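Is this the right way to post structure tokens for a design question? Let me know if I should format differently. Anyway, here goes:
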């Protein structure tokens, strides 16, 4: 087969700075959806892949999890980091989370934590999350009339929720937060304090593993009523989870559970500030909160991508894809697909239907989606009725990342009851 030509616009996927520049990013994605919806990307130091930018194609690929596997390339990393990660796994020290796994193992591992995220668990948790939302909005009032909404509020609220669900002691929350930022924000200078090489990145993983090894030991000895105990004592076919699977479970929950939600909360507030008419509609009609939260999640799309690899020769939109080749699911693009969303670049708190792919789709559909929705619902239901005025007090700043990201800073001036 001859090598496909590369559409230059597809270079955005391997360029973290593109994600810190909404206009540039969306110009490229809009062009790709219209002209090269299955785009070949060959841009070292990454191995080549096909970028999928249409909503329908992303859904179809995620739906067919026998043809499209998460192994061996679940997300975009450089070839060097990829090889290093695999060596580490072979040595028993790598990361193999739910997003790395395929069925049947994936289904069994997912089931271990799943009860903690079901509607009943969410209902039990709601009182505490509402109380916490009030605590953070009170804090916002107390530190007013200005704050950095990201670092003062949006980071800490979901961090607190997920760490409490896991059952970790409050004094460890800042450490977990730092580790998560280092792991997910590696492309951004502000977050990446340890360096970019695979060896330097491994030190972050080792810190996570050491912390969680102690936690596993203590929960096996003294089980408590929390998610950490469920993971530590989880069994598959009668056997305890392997050390790698146990530690990886904590890592995915601890990390996926808060930076994502922080990005949706802070980007959601910015969208309301930039669209005062929508803020007013929501203030007047709190029944719109459910659709408003969904729109904030579509609008911000905190998780930029996951990948799948073809188990056999196939095609997408008529483009042949060979067994072993990988596809990049461009969620940010799918969520602005003009064939699915009316006026996709309009922020509309009453958008319905809103079949966004920000939580993915199919067997890997975000385990924490109901939790993220509830947290956002609680926070904005507390904040909006108390908000007398709000405006920007400086430039909002987006993180440079190719994976999970959103606002790093959102300086605001406000008055709160
Ligand atoms: C707005 C916030 C969030 C967004 C946008 C988000 C997005 C995503 C996406 C796109 C996936 C991959 C889905 C796929 O491959 O089809 C995912 C998976 C996952 N998310 Fe979330 N997430 C959010 C919040 C959370 C929270 C609060 C948790 C809590 C623990 C969480 C835990 C997970 C886990 C464990 C997986 C792996 C599921 C699997 O592979 O079976 N996420 N999330």
């Amino acid at each position: 087969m001859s090598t496909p030509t590369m559409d230059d616009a597809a270079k955005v996927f391997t360029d973290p700075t593109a994600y810190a520049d909404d206009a540039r990013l969306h110009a490229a994605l809009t062009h790709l959806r219209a002209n090269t919806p299955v785009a070949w990307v060959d841009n070292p130091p990454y191995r080549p892949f096909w970028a999928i930018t249409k909503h329908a194609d992303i859904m179809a690929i995620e739906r067919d999890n026998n043809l499209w596997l998460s192994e061996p390339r679940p997300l975009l990393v450089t070839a060097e980091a990829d090889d290093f990660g695999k060596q580490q796994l072979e040595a028993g020290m790598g990361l193999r989370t739910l997003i790395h796994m395929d069925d049947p193992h994936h289904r069994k591992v997912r089931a271990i934590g799943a009860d903690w995220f079901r509607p009943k668990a969410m209902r039990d948790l709601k009182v505490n999350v509402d109380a916490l939302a009030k605590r953070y909005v009170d804090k916002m009032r107390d530190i007013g009339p200005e704050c950095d909404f990201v670092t003062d509020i949006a980071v800490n609220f979901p961090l607190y929720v997920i760490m409490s669900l896991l059952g970790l002691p409050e004094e460890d929350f800042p450490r977990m937060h730092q580790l998560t930022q280092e792991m997910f924000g590696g492309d951004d200078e502000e977050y990446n304090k340890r360096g970019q090489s695979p060896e330097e990145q491994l030190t972050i993983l080792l810190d996570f593993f050491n912390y969680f090894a102690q936690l596993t030991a203590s929960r096996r000895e003294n089980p408590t009523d929390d998610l950490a105990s469920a993971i530590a004592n989880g069994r598959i076919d009668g056997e305890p989870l392997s050390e790698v699977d146990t530690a990886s479970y904590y890592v995915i929950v601890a990390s996926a559970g808060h930076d994502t939600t922080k990005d949706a909360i802070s980007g959601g507030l910015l969208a309301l500030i930039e669209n005062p008419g929508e803020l007013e509609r929501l203030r007047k009609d709190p029944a719109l909160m459910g659709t408003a939260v969904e729109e904030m999640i579509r609008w911000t799309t905190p998780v930029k991508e996951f990948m799948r690899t073809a188990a056999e020769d196939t095609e997408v939109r008529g483009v042949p894809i060979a067994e072993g080749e990988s596809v990049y699911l461009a969620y940010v693009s799918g969520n602005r697909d003009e064939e699915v969303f009316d006026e996709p670049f309009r922020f509309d708190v009453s958008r319905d239907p809103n079949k966004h792919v920000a939580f993915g789709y199919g067997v890997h559909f975000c385990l924490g989606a109901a939790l993220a929705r509830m947290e956002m619902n609680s926070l904005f239901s507390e904040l909006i009725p108390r908000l007398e005025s709000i405006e920007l007090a400086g430039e909002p700043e987006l993180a440079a990342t190719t994976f999970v990201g959103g606002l790093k800073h959102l300086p605001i001036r406000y008055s709160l009851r």
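Format looks fine. Someone answered above. Worth noting: The mean pLDDT is 93. Residues 119-143 form the longest helix (25 residues).
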